[in-house]
Amino acid sequence: QVQLVESGGGLVQAGGSLRLSCAASGRTFSSYVMGWFRQAPGKEREFVASISRGGAYIYYADSLKGRFTISRDSGKNTVYLQMNSLKPEDTAVYYCAADSQLTTAAMRSPGEYHYWGQGTQVTVSS
Question: What confidence category does residue 80 fall into, taking pLDDT thresholds of 50, 70 and 90?
């Protein structure tokens, strides 16, 4: 079992940057696929980015490529989401997720992740 705690959200002006962090408990961080998802008010939770256990496979939502970067630090049991050139439409609650059984084919699917953090609010003002 793993517990996830997100941090780093906040209020930023359009064009600004934020880096989200997700700290995972436990000693088996390297065995988990990690993902970031977001949910805006009135919308479904959507895929943002995911990274495989060893970091060899990284996926992004097509609309976010070039602005967002996911990375992981096994020494710190933490996964990051660097968000640049933020837009008002990026406003959402951002969630970190983890799963130890995912195949690469399922890394974009929120329903496939077993563990979730509580979320961190990101608000981008125009």
Answer: very high
- What was the pLDDT predicted at 94? 98
Place of tokens 């890394």: 107
> Using CA atoms, how far apart are residues 77 and 26, in angstroms rounded to an integer?
8
CA distances from 108 to 17, 18, 88 (A): 23, 22, 23
Residue 65 C-beta-side C-alpha neighbours within 13 Å: 6
C-alpha dist (Å) from residue 95 to 23, 25, 39, 91, 126: 12, 16, 8, 13, 23
The more confident residue out of 9 and 1 is 9
The string over 51-85, giving b where at least 16 C-beta atoms fall within 10 Å of a residue's C-beta and e elsewhere, is: bbbeeeeebbbeebeeebbbebeeeebbbbbebee
For the beta sheet containing 78-83, the strands, ordered from the edge strand earlier in sequence to the opposite edge, are: 4-7, 18-24, 78-83, 68-73
User: Which one, of 90, 37, 87, 27, lies nearest residue 59 by Cα?
Assistant: 37
Q: Which amino acid is at 70?
A: I
